[in-house]
Amino acid sequence: MVEFKIRRYDGEKSYWQSFEIPAKRGMTVLEALYYIKENYDSSLAFRASCRMGVCGSCAMKINDKPRLACETQVLMLGNAVKVEPLDNFRVIKDLITEFEGFFEKHKAVKPYLIRKDDVYAEPKELLQTPEELNEYYIFTLCIKCGACYSVCPAAATLDDYLGPAAMAAAYRFCADSRDEGQRERYRIVSSSNGVWRCHLAMECSEVCPKNVEPAKAVQLLRRKTAFSILKSLLGW
Amino acid sequence: MSVSGWFRFKGRSIFSWSFMFQRITGVVLLIYLIAHLTYLSSLFDRTGATYEGMIAITVSKQFLVFDILLVLCGVFHGINGFRIILHEFGIAYEYRKPLLAIFTVIAVAVWLYASYVMYSLTGG
Amino acid sequence: MEYDIVIVGAGIAGMRAAIAAAEKSRKLSVALIAKTYPIRCHSVCAEGGTAAVLREGDSFELHAWDTVKGSDFLADQDAVEFFVRECPVEIIRLENWGCPWSRNEDGTIAQRPFGGHSFNRATYAKDRTGLHEVHTLYERMLMYDNIEIFPEYFITNLAIENGAVQGVSAIKLKTGDMEFFEAKAVIFATGGAGRLYGFTTYSHQVTGDGLAIAYRNGIPLKDMEFFQFHPTGLIPSGILMTEGCRGEGGYLLNRNGERFMKNYAPEKMEIAPRDVVSRAMWTEIIEGRGFEGEYGPYIALDLRHLGEEKIEERLPLIRDAAIKFAGVDPVEEPIPVKPVAHYTMGGIDTNMRCETAVKGFFAAGECACVSIHGANRLGANSTAECLVFGRVAGEVAAEYALNAKPGKISAEFRQKEEKRIFDDLLGKSGDESPYQIKKELNETMDKNMWIFREENGLKEAVRKIRELKDRYRNVEINDRSRGFNTDLTSTIEIGYMLDLAEVVAIGALKRQESRGAHYRLDYPKRDDENWLKHTLAYYTPEGPKFDYKPVTITKWKPVERKY
């Protein structure tokens, strides 16, 4: 039997609640949460969908580390499991946090391919070699789960900070050989709540469930942004 | 906006600890800088009497402990700073764990040497 | 709230429809409603690829023939012929929008072999095709000012008055309030109904909401008894092991270590269509030639001979999932798999223009049945269908909305809807747990409505479902709060699933033949004389009423389906 301590929130007050779960080998934290919901307390609220680590819904703090609940094995956590909502997000109810701001920041960096010859009616195949694909591919794996944002000290101390996920998305497009909108994006991220606020705590890369390495993306973005500014100052 | 968000350590990796110490040593060095400038500004009285008096207190065996701690802050902040500058240019990010270990070792080595020098200079 | 077009469901079909409608005219206001954030949709789970005729040596004729034969001749051939001609442009469009398709050495988009296709036409992005398509569509959608996204709105009903659609009602999950969206045109792209089953590849949220709502409003559901069972579902979670595993050369082995597919489909072996392979695997299991494991019997999916490099290049997600969720590294050991409920071939009855029986109401994607897939879907055709018919639905709805009257939801409807949900369902007391009902529903579906069906099992399923529907009238919802009441939404979902289960079970009971994914042990032969027709189910308070309509045949007369 494993004891689950969950930090709950009913809209007014926050409190801890404990449950005993009969854990089997292979049982994930998400399955345990469903077990609690279906057998003990059906008011437990949490986000979940794919249960295979691709949708990013179930990111939460499990034993002080943000992880995807669907990918975390209960028996690897010991006899006591602590489950809390992600830090740096406003809690709406129980383990559900406010993601509106997170997606707004993602939208703000123009995370789409920008090309001059964008013709909807008659698309033409663009060539891209496997090497060019590998330049940015790892950054396309971001599932927007929010784990990186929850451990970022810059995000914790500044509400407007773009955050690792948004900047990794910006870099993903800047490094895509088909993109022509780099200058626009550099202008957007080059601000005190953008790339310049990252001071390399690097915790985001440590917790990313998909090994996207957002800290690396932010540094590479800084380099590109800095050179771009330099070039424009020198009139190149 | 509170800065408590810089000092979270539960469940964090050594990179967060390094980040925290960089902040703390930075604040210490800032305070020291102000103190040091104030200290030096005592030379404006042209006699040097205040200055000599302060030197007698601070450059002594009893004060060594504070100096060693100060040098630790300075050395850590500087050498860790080099590591950060390297990564911020997008260099060697894949080797961040070994690099952290190496730079910490260098910092400790430099600090021990500096402490030894200060110790011998204060007649120990 | 008033919009020109309201799209319910933000998967590949829904987002593609939104983009198509917004492109058609920048003056149209489009609302995209979904019960989760768009990139959390079930479409991200798609793995293998999207089929399209792109290269020399392939032809539309061949793709259409593969699809029609794969459907066991139940697909409407005019729709299929239209569909195959639209796939290539969608692939290129996605590419232009940033999709990271896997490439050949020369930089052109790569394609790989896939089950049932006689040409290597599955365009893929490693083995995370769905993830990349969804993210590309979502990011593209952000460019349009006239699309407004409403995430975490749970749809409860369709408002139809005077024979035309007026809008939809939905619960805003964050506050728990009922919101009404008045619209000139409504598109449903709400996905299938896989969570009827216990062992399934589907996400938790795929509970057939749109299907049930359309059904309850008198719109017929077509061919619901056809559920696809994908051969390789990971044990014990049901997570999909893509068909690409077999496309790239994986073997299926029974406990004697033999590639048993040679006895069932000697030509295609492991890359025969899914219904053929699933039946083969299930036969091996029933006849005792499966491996024994702690979760029951299973078949081994062997990828070891592909080598680590190829697996990392072509199937990285599979390796990751097998290690994380089953503790098995495909480079070293075979993966334990067994057939799993995977796709809903049936859906809301639409024509080739995504129009339904109600004016202004359209449907696209898995929740619609055009029918492209007939009695069995070929792999890589579903994401293609969502893209093609998402676009069609968006454009047709936009055309309709440019000339239609604004929707108007009456005060009477609003009151009735609020009362139905908040007073009658949330407020009442009872002694049944909705989760217990769902558990029993899953058990009976897994047992009686699986790959091999027969009369007694089906009759038992119908009886049990009717009993569960009765008991559902007595459910009590424990969580009485308003904000983010997942207890309420889960219970409503279970209600949807019960209605759909009844349609599926009775439809299967009535269809006395075996075709595609629907296999009856008591009627094992395909009966083209009596059953070359689509099943239509209409809602009545006593249960579904059935009617039938003929299949459109243009080029290919039904022949024996051998692989």
Automatic annotation (TrEMBL), chain A:
Q: Which domain of life is it from?
A: Archaea
* Any GO MF annotation of the entry: 3 iron, 4 sulfur cluster binding
Per UniProt, which keywords does this protein have? 2Fe-2S, 3Fe-4S, 4Fe-4S, Iron, Iron-sulfur, Metal-binding, Oxidoreductase, Tricarboxylic acid cycle
Report domain 4Fe-4S ferredoxin-type positions.
133-161
> What EC class is this?
oxidoreductase
Which InterPro entries does the UniProt record give? 2Fe-2S_ferredoxin-like_sf (IPR036010), 2Fe-2S_ferredoxin-type (IPR001041), 2Fe2S_fd_BS (IPR006058), 4Fe4S_Fe-S-bd (IPR017896), 4Fe4S_Fe_S_CS (IPR017900), Beta-grasp_dom_sf (IPR012675), Helical_ferredxn (IPR009051), SDH/FRD_Iron-Sulfur (IPR050573)
GO BP, one example?
A: respiratory electron transport chain
> What EC designation does it have?
1.3.5.1
- Pathway in which this enzyme or protein is active: Carbohydrate metabolism; tricarboxylic acid cycle
Q: Which cofactor does it need?
A: [4Fe-4S] cluster; [3Fe-4S] cluster; [2Fe-2S] cluster
Q: Where is the 2Fe-2S ferredoxin-type domain?
A: 1-87
The answer to keyword Nucleus applying to this record is no
A UniProt-annotated Pfam family: Fer4_8
NCBIfam families associated with the record:
dhsB (TIGR00384), PRK05950.1 (NF004616)
**PANTHER family the UniProt entry points to:** SUCCINATE DEHYDROGENASE [UBIQUINONE] IRON-SULFUR SUBUNIT, MITOCHONDRIAL, SUCCINATE DEHYDROGENASE IRON-SULFUR PROTEIN
Family, as annotated = Belongs to the succinate dehydrogenase/fumarate reductase iron-sulfur protein family.
Name used for this protein in its record: succinate dehydrogenase
Automatic annotation (TrEMBL), chain C:
Q: Which cofactor does it need?
A: FAD
- Annotated Fumarate reductase/succinate dehydrogenase flavoprotein-like C-terminal domain ranges read 439-563
As its record notes, the protein acts as a catalyst of: a menaquinone + succinate = a menaquinol + fumarate
Record GO biological process:
electron transport chain
What's one Pfam family the UniProt record gives for this protein? Succ_DH_flav_C
Q: Which UniProt keywords apply?
A: Cell membrane, Coiled coil, Electron transport, FAD, Flavoprotein, Membrane, Nucleotide-binding, Oxidoreductase, Transport
What Gene3D superfamilies does UniProt report for this protein, alphabetically?
Answer: FAD/NAD(P)-binding domain (3.50.50.60), Fumarate reductase/succinate dehydrogenase flavoprotein-like, C-terminal domain (1.20.58.100), succinate dehydrogenase protein domain (4.10.80.40), Succinate dehydrogenase/fumarate reductase flavoprotein, catalytic domain (3.90.700.10)
Q: Which GO terms describe its cellular component?
A: plasma membrane
Family that this chain belongs to: Belongs to the FAD-dependent oxidoreductase 2 family. FRD/SDH subfamily.
- What this protein is called in its record is Fumarate reductase flavoprotein subunit
The upper taxonomy is: Archaea, Methanobacteriati, Methanobacteriota, Archaeoglobi, Archaeoglobales
